[in-house]
Amino acid sequence: MKKNENLDLYNESYHTDFKYNDENLIGLSFYGHCIKNEIKKNNSKSILSLGIGHQVVIDVLSNELNYSLENYDILEGSKIIIDNFKVAEEFKNKINVILTYFENYQTEKKYDIIEMGFVLEHVDDPEFIINKFKNLLSPSGKMFIAVPNATSLHRQIGFHAGYLPSLYELSEYDLKLGHKTYFDTEMLVKMIENSGLKVNNKTGIFLKPITTAQMNTLSWDENVMNALIKLGEKYPEISNSILIETSL
Known about the structure:
Elements: H1 21-42, E1 46-50, H2 56-62, E2 71-76, H3 79-83, E3 95-99, E4 111-117, H4 126-134, E5 137-148, H5 153-160, H6 172-176, H7 185-194, E6 198-205, H8 212-218, H9 222-234, E7 241-247
Parallel strand pairs: 1-2, 1-4, 2-3, 4-5
Antiparallel strand pairs: 5-7, 6-7
Helix pairs in contact: 1-2
């Protein structure tokens, strides 16, 4: 994000009536539960989230404050989103929300988990963000990165059908969300490895075969949606979003 960029301008894309709200929630819930499993497996004590977003991930992860988690810091650049942020009374003393641009955050803390879900597509220099926050990982810490996938199956179909001029071109709705870059799996892995981090696991989030408008006309039931989530895990290169777990 640019210095002094007004992030409040993108607030409307987090409302429930936003065109892609339902599938955003599917992806975020899957992503949040992947991190939750890591916290449980390693009894992680501290976590840093980059952004509040829809609060889906935070709601999933904050429940672990009842168990191993002791500290949860959240960075957010939009005051409107912070003002709308709600957390259970029992977690208020353990969750610290900081109004700051990610690029400006300074701390001596080290975190067991750093999550930047659907962040890198919003910033001007994603490699800088990865390099900056890898320095805040504890020696055995894990960083989770998720981004929309330029080579998602539905985008590839659209491109080859002549509806998309480029797999990497941002749409009207990408711009409303404040997106600046479209990544594919190879681009993201290369950026992570260039920063000196190891790629431990790579998975996909939701296999989206057709457009959102087309999906809405079909009214697929829960079994079909769950099948598409499972297939996304199996085929990250063509899934709707990419999730990568990294470490030092």
